[in-house]
Amino acid sequence: MVNRVVVGAGYGLKDWIAQRATAVVMAVYTLILLATLGALGPSGFEAWRSIFSNGFMQFMTFLFFISLFWHVWIGVRDILMDYIWNDGLRLVLMIAVVAALVGYAGWAAKILWRL
Amino acid sequence: MADIAIKKKRPKNLDLPTIRLPLPGILSILHRISGAVLFLLLPVLLWLFQQSLASPETYAVAKALTGNILVKLILLGLIWLYMHHFCAGIRYLLLDLHKGIDLESARLSSKIVFGVSIALTVIVGAKVLW
Prior knowledge:
The structure holds two protein chains of two kinds.
Chain A: H1 13-40, H2 45-53, H3 55-83, H4 87-113
Chain B: H1 2-9, H2 23-40, H3 42-54, H4 56-67, H5 69-96, H6 103-129
Helix pairs in contact in B: 2-5, 3-4, 5-6
């Protein structure tokens, strides 16, 4: 075990769990999508669209996107903490990443809800 | 604070070109690189997804774009990065559960990750891109 001085802050357990929980959601979705692609083999616009336009896949795809953006936040934050040592620059980059991801979430909702 | 003093005496080798990473190490850094690249290309991928679903006209635009051999190869590369991240991620989930943490199994499982992710890339690429 690692000897740590307790300082009262969290040690990132919540993020650690979130990273893995979102990974499991995305892995399950990936398998569902691969199976769907394999079974249907969409050959045109209607077939391709029909994969995502039914209620179940619409829900699952949106869940995938939300998991993806949350997962990306934890991963990119780790990368920034490892390589960007200037506190100000790191903060700016983190804010930019969060802003982009929130925007992507809205974008993904727009794509799926117009189907 | 005895352990801090010990920590400072540890030898460090950060001369990257002289470091020969074992396969699990290559898997690990590729896991990070693939995640970063996929993150940076998210707007492009979301845009392509949007075009493919919005209308028959935009679908045709996406189809024409992905008909370009260069675009096809880039997408194939991205599918590989996704599949690598996916397979390596499953390996890490198993390691979290203390499955396969001895050296032999860890080396074997990293070989499996490379094999399976490349096979999946070929299958998905053949199905979706060609």
